[in-house]
């Protein structure tokens, strides 16, 4: 009875992740189509005057990049049945960089407004600190993963029956 419930639960969980994945994929493709529709296709119309807004394009491309990273997390969850923290840190890093770019690009509008400018500068300081923390976290996680791979290789040399890294990550080892 319990095995049947667990098997059904795993199937339901997989369906949810597949639904999330398709939704993210459609959102990412839709955002790319929107970027092309709004900013690039009007150039091919000889009768329209097109204003090129690189900041808006970059902003939307970074959102697409975040959707891609989240889609990668869903794929990892489906294939390996585990959650890894590094993709979450990468999404956070992209979000921070996106906000820093937007603030710095628009800051010339707010220089005349002293109070608002100081708010943006305070936000930039916090975002800068967050950027450093996220990069350090990603670096630390990659270092730990590299050390684990080295340890497993050394164990395999000493003990040939030691599972390899893929088996350990997939939960088979």
Describe this entry's structure for a reader:
The chain has 173 residues and is mostly helical. The radius of gyration is 23 Å and the shape is extended. It has five helices and no strands. Helix 3 (86-110) runs antiparallel to helix 4. The protein folds into two domains: 1-83; 84-163.
Radius of gyration: 23 Å
Determine the number of helices (DSSP H or I, runs of at least 4 residues).
5
The termini sit apart by: 27 Å
Shape, principal axes of CA atoms: extended
Q: How much helical structure, as a percent, in the residues?
A: over 70%
Number of strands: 0
Mean residue pLDDT: 82
Which structural class do the helices and strands define?
mainly alpha
The domain tally reads: 2
Major beta sheet summary: none
Share of β-strand residues: under 5%
Helices and strands, in order, run as HHHHH
Which regions have little confidence, pLDDT < 50, spanning 5+ residues?
Answer: none
List the helices and strands and how they pair.
Elements (H helix, E strand, L loop, with lengths): L1 H39 L13 H27 L5 H25 L3 H45 L6 H6 L3
